[in-house]
Specification:
Largest sheet: 4 strands, parallel
Order of helices and strands: EHEHEHEHEEEEH
Strand order of the largest sheet: 2-1-3-4
CATH topology of the largest domain: Rossmann fold
Strand content: 15-25%
CATH superfamily of the largest domain: Response regulator
Distance between the termini: 23 Å
Amino acid sequence: MSKKRVLFLCTGNSARSQMAEGFLRHLAGDKFEVYSAGIKPTEVNPLAIKVMDEVGIDISGQKAKSVMEFISQKFDYVITVCDNAKQTCPVFPAKHKKIHWSLEDPAGIEGEEETKLKVFREIRNKIKENIINFLNLAKDKAKLKCPFCSFVQEVDIPKNMCLSFYICKSCQKRITPSLGSCCVICAYSDKTCLGFTV
């Protein structure tokens, strides 16, 4: 099975997206090809390297890269980790799932190094939490909650089509999408089908 490809984007590719790349590669590098880039890349922030090292993840070998290096490549997920990157993100030609995390830029904090480290650690921990949530959402299964009897059942998410209906194992009713939803995955679970991606 081929690995899913993920690209993390922020403004400078110096801290948030670098930490996200490090976490996802560390936690699930066997399942994902992981990259990060910036709209206006600078250098990897030494404090980002330091706080990641505190949790046993070495990102000292990662380099800041421009998003334009990846613009013609295909990704399954493009995740923006700052509001500026979301607003200025270029259009990728291939179909992919867009995800946005609004994270404060720790590099913008002024003060003594310990003050800055405190903020870097807070952002690092938020990123780890987001990565864990992302890994749950990226699974190829969805838990559907029946709108009639509230029974929850797990189904496989189709790879190349929308799931137009399913039969509830509890009440045996035929469940179809709610108004405004493309399929039952999007309507009755915490996932989105591939047909919903842009």
